[in-house]
Amino acid sequence: MLGRGLKRKLSDCEENVAGFSSAFDSSRNLPYPLKRQLVLNMCLTKLQTYKMLVEPNLHRSVLIANTVRQIQEEMRQESGQPISVCTGITPSSPSYTGMESSGISLQLPSGISHQESNCCDLRSAEDPIENSLLIVSDDDMSSAISSILKDLDFVEDISPPTCLVPPGDDQPKFPENTGLKLEDDRQDLKGAECVFGSFEISNSTSYLKDLAIDDIFEDIDTSMYDSDFCCPPLMPPRSPPVATEEPLKTFPSCNSSSASNIQICRTDLSELDHIMEILVGS
Amino acid sequence: LLAGFGNLMQDVLWCFSQVKGTIDIGVTEADIISTVEFNHTGELLATGDKGGRVVIFQREQESKQQPQRRGEYNVYSTFQSHEPEFDYLKSLEIEEKINKIRWLPQHNAAYFLLSTNDKTVKLWKVSERDKRPEGYNLKDEDGRLRDPSMITTLRVPVLRPMDLMVEATPRRVFANAHTYHINSISVNSDYETYMSADDLRINLWNFEITNQSFNIVDIKPANMEELTEVITAAEFHPHHCNAFVYSSSKGTIRLCDMRASALCDRHAKFFEEPEDPSNRSFFSEIISSISDVKFSHSGRYILTRDYLTVKVWDLNMENRPMETYQVHDYLRSKLCSLYENDCIFDKFECVWNGSDSVIMTGSYNNFFRMFDRNTKRDVTLEASRENSKPRAVLKPRKVCVGGKRRKDEISVDSLDFSKKILHTAWHPSENIIAVAATNNLYIFQDKVN
């Protein structure tokens, strides 16, 4: 599933992580920011692994995403950034009563330039060891979580049976703002790329391709993180959920964040047509 | 004699009774037991496994000749409940693993149970056949069709005895109602409806109707990026057919009343314990995720299991649990390693005994724990082949947390985290428990004097 060379690096990473996690558990001397960064890295690694699965575990993904958000919030507060800058659109769905008010929405980073400078400040940590672990910025984490949770929704959804559910407030809201979000994601990414000046972020949109890594981060494999913010997830605009679904539009291969996969999509569709022709015998 | 009743000076002594399953070192994944459930009388014990099979054991009649063999459980029926499916449209494989089995109360000679995998619930009828018709007119005894022109007389077929045959037939298939993975099913006390819960939705079904279900809970946000909480378990109240509870990944329980509105997104009661700031860690939320919720038989209490504790909640007290029991608190300092190897996501179940006085749940190293709510005493026992001599009394186990390890104690670092007891069941009225340890099913009973 992973490209050549990446699999080996992943297991190396796992070995390092295993060493770290037992160090985390046993040592009281690890500085808190380092511990936090360790946990954050583990979370992002897991999320990235799930992203590659055809059907990631929703329960685990949500728990891990929440942990990342929590760490993210803590880091923001430490850097003195007011919270209001970082929140996007607050959830408005009335049918979900369990939403905590502290839940941070990660859709539209409204203060992008603020976040950029924030990232730069974080980056200026003196400790070189800490620096080598500060691989991911705020935006990257947000984008990573966003894209993973969005992908989870791409599973073709059987809406509640319309024949018996009463209409009204309880109806799920239609996601009309997906188009707008894509634009903001693009801007977000340009901002991220500026910050990562010394990074060679390849324009490759496929996580399978190798990425060149800057000397400072030689032994840290960042390719897994890069794929998330190379290109916004290209989702076809979603029409409101209807009782009769359009099976063809929810092809899983359209999920991946890459333009080349759209080609794959089209190929798959034509293959499907071909198969249907054979089945129908026309 | 139920634990907690009678002679309180004596603790219940648990003895090995039986073990089902192979002793092979290499365990076939398909044989891993994924659910265990007694029926309402305790006469039957059902297990489901990862391979989609259901095995039902029946308790044999107790005989005067062998009083010490108090009703052993023997295989009664085995059938393939679910098959692996491939969803071609989504390119997804649907696992055949049986997530849950729930029995229906018996009202005639046949037994009925619900079994579910991630996507489809099935109603199975298990019935006995001990007679067969003989003397058909159009078929001979081998089943071959006779030539109608050769038939000169007619006779009435008669029923003759045959060897007992137990057959399982699927009576209903409830499919295509869940986008996300089903984690719970629960039969309503009206015995006409049941519910199935997945990560984001709960559906109500009528047993007679398979092509539609009623959505009663939907926590899916309009935008999936806003999703911060999922449903982890759900159960109907044992007596009030309008009430049910569901638990969440954030450690909360909601009691809902179906009379209030069609869509039960607004809870009638909300149970949540305030976080203990001294125990706060990066993993606080993950370990607070509730993996199982069970009403007491009385219907007055709720039992919940999260990663490190079991809690008893009073339905009339929403702001904190009535009782909290530590299952394996020594793991609190190992959370990062357990997160790294994904053990922190293991979903342990919990059960009440018949009188609601003792609760039981599993742990690692094939340990399981029991907590007596009256005496406040607890015990750790182990399901292992070494302790498997007939009627051998189980010796309590102890985990040593550091410092000097006594003989017979085991240190935290020596625990085998691949041997986890996730599924256990307690007989509805007697001290008989079934404990699933990977591919083996252990049955323990209390000591007969």
UniProtKB/TrEMBL annotation, chain A:
GO terms for cellular component: nucleus. It comes from Nothocercus julius. Residues 32-79 form the SERTA domain. Pfam families: SERTA. The gene is Sertad2. It comes from the Eukaryota. This is SRTD2 protein. InterPro entries: E2F-SERTA_domain_protein, SERTA_dom.
Automatic annotation (TrEMBL), chain B:
SUPFAM superfamilies: WD40 repeat-like. It comes from the Eukaryota. InterPro entries: PP2A_PR55 (IPR000009), PP2A_PR55_CS (IPR018067), WD40/YVTN_repeat-like_dom_sf (IPR015943), WD40_repeat_dom_sf (IPR036322), WD40_rpt (IPR001680). Coiled coil: none annotated. GO terms for molecular function: protein phosphatase regulator activity. GO terms for cellular component: protein phosphatase type 2A complex. The keyword Cell wall biogenesis/degradation does not apply. Keywords: Repeat, WD repeat. Belongs to the phosphatase 2A regulatory subunit B family. This is Serine/threonine-protein phosphatase 2A 55 kDa regulatory subunit B. The lineage of its organism: Eukaryota, Metazoa, Chordata, Craniata, Vertebrata.
